[in-house]
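Whiteboard transcription, Tuesday session. T.W. wrote the structure tokens on the left side:
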């Protein structure tokens, strides 16, 4: 801790517990619906795909810390200022391939929500391209 750290303005929290719980519940609810749509175009429970993920937060420091943690998972990751809102920072990238079963993807989604919350970042969901099959 530096001598002049008290001069550095503290960042306000980005995600309170109530918003985190609501967001996690929403993500858990949306995952099976997204998988249902993927099933209609040939992605089944044993298909393996990489997922593109998205997080948001309010400081570059938080984004950098989360990106470092995600990199430990072996995922591609980058972060920077959001194109749509210059006051936000986005953390995004691609996972390794995983089975597209409801259980695997839902568990992964909850893991990402919880990981984001640890670093005061909100998991904003995932997407994929089915042409990886």
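and on the right, the sequence the group agreed on:
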């Amino acid at each position: 801790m530096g001598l002049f750290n008290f001069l550095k303005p503290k960042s306000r929290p980005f995600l309170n517990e109530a918003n985190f719980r609501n967001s996690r519940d929403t993500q858990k609810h949306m995952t099976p619906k997204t998988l249902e749509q993927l099933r209609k175009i040939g992605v089944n429970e044993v298909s393996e795909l990489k997922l593109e993920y998205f997080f948001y937060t309010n400081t570059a420091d938080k984004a950098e810390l989360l990106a470092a943690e995600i990199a430990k998972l072996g995922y591609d990751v980058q972060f920077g200022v959001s194109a749509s809102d210059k006051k936000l920072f986005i953390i995004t990238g691609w996972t390794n391939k995983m089975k597209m079963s409801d259980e695997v993807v839902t568990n992964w989604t909850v893991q990402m929500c919880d990981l984001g919350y640890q670093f005061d970042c909100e998991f904003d969901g995932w997407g994929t391209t089915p042409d990886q099959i």
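Someone added at the bottom: The longest helix spans residues 17-39.
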